[in-house]
Amino acid sequence: MDLSNLLNSVLGDERILQEMSRKVGAQPEEVRKAATLGMPTLVEAIDRNAREESKRDSLSKALEDHQNDDVENLEGFINHVDVDEGDRMVGHILGDRKMNVENNIAKNSNLGIGQVSGLMSMLAPILIGMLGNKKREQNVSRDNIPDLTGSLGGLLGGGGSGGIMDIAKRMLDKDGDGSIMDDLLGKFF
Question: Are 126 and 13 in contact (CB under 8 A)?
């Protein structure tokens, strides 16, 4: 499954949205908004980590640890996701920006910070599992992980100005606290 299919599954499959909504205690449309912000932000942060030599080893290890995760069965995966491990993943992926990003997503999606944290704890394992699968299938070496992660941003419109990945980049800025929901929804839907 590529990222665009994954994103469409997370955002478009009502059963998956219902399950994530049930787990975080929110309405599906609110979860859709938060996931629309959270997924690309995690993708951008993972790509940044892959490009930093000092972080690439731990990312490579995480991808190897999750290379056999069954993300093809997304509904089943979400039902059994370890949110504690997912929260640790989010912490590793976002680093010191975790609170700022989660607060920003909460503000722009009408979810509480705990709900956003729970959602991000489901999204991160999905992405790491998918990337781990791709790393294994394509026999990607540690040094070529940036190529693997960089291709994800392109699938989400990272090449152009104002695309979903530009919004994700702003989410990762320390002062990126403006309301970006209208821009994002206009680009994605």
Answer: no
